[in-house]
Amino acid sequence: MRTTKDAGDHKRLTTETQRTQSFSPFRRFLCALRASVVVHLLQRCKISQTSSPSPRLLQFLLPRLALALFVLYSLRPPPILVVVGPPQEVVTTNPLVGVHTRLTDEVEEWKIQRTLQMVREMGAPWVVEFFPWAYYEPEPGRYDWDHVDMVVRHARAQGLTVIARIGWVPQWARPEETTFTYLDPDGYEAFADFVATFAARYRGQVDHIIVWNEPNLSFEWGYRPVDPAAYVDLLRAVYPAAHAANPDVVVLAGALAPTLEPPGSPAGLNDLDYLRGMYEAGAAPYFDGLAVHAYGLGFPPEADPAPDVINFRRTELLRAVMEEFGDGNKPIYVTEAGWNDHPRWTRAVRPAQRIAYTIGAYEWARQNWPWCRVVAMWAFRYPAPLHNYQDYYTFVTDDFRPKPIYLAVQEYTGQSQRASESANQ
Amino acid sequence: MRNLSFISRRSLIAVLVLLLATCRPSPDALDRVLETGVLRVGMDASYPPFEYIDGEGNLVGFDVDLAREIATRLGVEPRFVANLPYDGLYDSLTAEQVDVVISALYVDPTRTADFTYSTPYFDAGQVLVMAEGTEGIDGMADLDGRTVAVEFGSAGDVEARAWARRLASLTILPCQTADEALAKVAAGEADAALVDHLSALMTSMEGLRIVEPMVTSEPYAIAVRREDRRLLEAIDEILAAMRDDGTLDRLQARWFTAAP
Fold first, then answer.
1. Where are the beta strands (DSSP E) in A316-371?
2. Is residue A39 situated within a structural domain?
3. Mutate to test the interface with A, among B11, B87, B226 (most CBs of A within 10 A)
4. Which residues form the domain of B184?
5. Interatomic CA distance for residues A222 and A105, integer angstroms
């Protein structure tokens, strides 16, 4: 769904572009001019100086300044101590329950830990998280895994299964004046190398990888016309490399945006047509499962699917395409889904409906979709409020206050009863 | 030495003259707007009653009328770019596709490096509503020992739950809609309701009143590119005039009223 895309991703992209644009030659000239004035004035001050400060004054001031700095340093608040703790286990009545977290831009370790702890306490065994290639391989062959290590360590400590969504192209791997979502076929091997390095490093810890995100939208495909065959070429490069690095890895393809865009639209292509295009281009041997985005918009989860309707059960139409091409033995992973309860957005529902629909969707998948491994709702929490309709997708506020939907899911998974029982013991 | 000082003084003056020369106003969207006679307004027309497409396919709403009024007072025509998705509103400003964004836009502090906002023209935060004549309730802190009705799962519900942890005794009465929460107050089943400002304005408030100040704030404002300071100043002046002459109140009365 185009309008429910990652506003955070888009915002960062916008800001970076703007900063690049705003540092114009004119501004550089102004900066240089200001700097020359400052230097000039400083030089004049120096010339006009006739006497240096008294050594006795310096002797008096310096030790006191040093002492004051030392005291201030000693009084600084201590860093928050984060202890990973003993391994936990998710207890739930529905093993399909999952959420998409947004820890990519979460800096503080205690917040990462708290987020994942709250996911476990909601009774969700699955998390989907975005790991941008551009963040972790800033130069070819130079990796910075600190943040990934932190997220994976805490997720595992909470007993969660992580699905890693990998995308976003570093500057060095794409032409100038292109966006993070642009990757030429020349860059496919570099991307495959990164995925393989990731898969090897986190083997046994992260065994599910989504290749790219919503390639059926133009802006997710570098603002170019979408191209299922080119995406299959990308899968063809990634799949063997990932499996060579980690034979247990489950490579997930698709993660297509639910959209009704007709062929030839500059914005993108209908997800059903795109999936057919993938199969026609020979995608089948190059993925182990299909990642699906299943937003409900204004419809309840049990609403019948139809090719011209976007709703939760559109997933079943994608499933039908898989079966049509003899690929029905592969599972589906719903890696984004959900309802929005913004008070005025025309694509939103009332908060009480959102709660009922969300739980209904988890239950629908459990009862009716034997081929489904997880339903991960968008999005558990943002590191900071986005100040728009996106905030109305979350389960927990940025300051970790559980929303009523969180408490309702907790009750659905049996976690609230568990919590009260342990409180009574 | 005197010569050196003279040269130095001359160079300083030259630098100052250069600085002054560069201090002339930079190109501003206001110039383009006045020159072309068109104010390009970006909005996502899917947020009634602020901006939406009515049954006859017309772009209507509070923000639409607000944009028209601002354009009129600038002496130009508005041109609406109303098919933008919300996520693309700021991009449309960056790409200079539009001059302003008027789209129930929440003032976002994280955007202020690149954009500036007008003075807010509406606050969509949470308000406490109580029956006319009820005494002793000036805010959430006065609800200790009382009952507050909320729309279940809403931002008001989250806020009420936070207050319930602070107060010794606060009973939260969850309702299916904001209307129902307000009806509970009117029926005497709750001492107050905590709902968003717009819901309060758009529900029949007979026998009810909004408690000042608001419990939370969610100001809506107009966004422009940061460099378009003169356009922003012009908009702020117009908004102030609209506040003074009652135009903003009239627009609110037109769009934020209960359905008959």
1. 332-338
2. yes
3. B87
4. 126-211
5. 22
Residues of A in contact with B157 (CB under 8 A): 351, 404
Kindly determine whether residue B162 and residue A388, on different chains, have CB atoms separated by under 8 Å: no
More confident site: B84 or A405: A405
Residues A30 and A153 in one domain: no
Q: Please write the tens of the pLDDT for every residue from A228-239.
A: 999 999 999 999
pLDDT digits (tens, 9 = 90+) for A204-232: 999 999 999 999 999 999 999 999 999 99
Cβ count within 10 A of residue A61: 11
Which A residues in the span 364-393 are in contact with B, Cβ-Cβ below 8 Å?
384, 386-389
Compute the nearest-CA separation of A10 from chain B (Å): 7
Q: In B, which residues are within 8 Å of A266 by CB distance?
A: none
Query: Are A63 and A92 found together in one domain?
Result: no
Cβ proximity of B150 and B175 under 8 Å? yes
This complex has an ipTM of 0.83
| pTM: predicted TM-score of the whole model, two decimal places | 0.84
Q: Nearest 5°: CA angle at B165, between A108 and A399? A: 20
CA–CA dist A61, A58 (Å, integer): 5
User: Domain residues for A63?
Assistant: 17-74
List C-alpha distances in Å: A367 to A96, A141, A302, A359, A410.
11, 46, 11, 12, 19
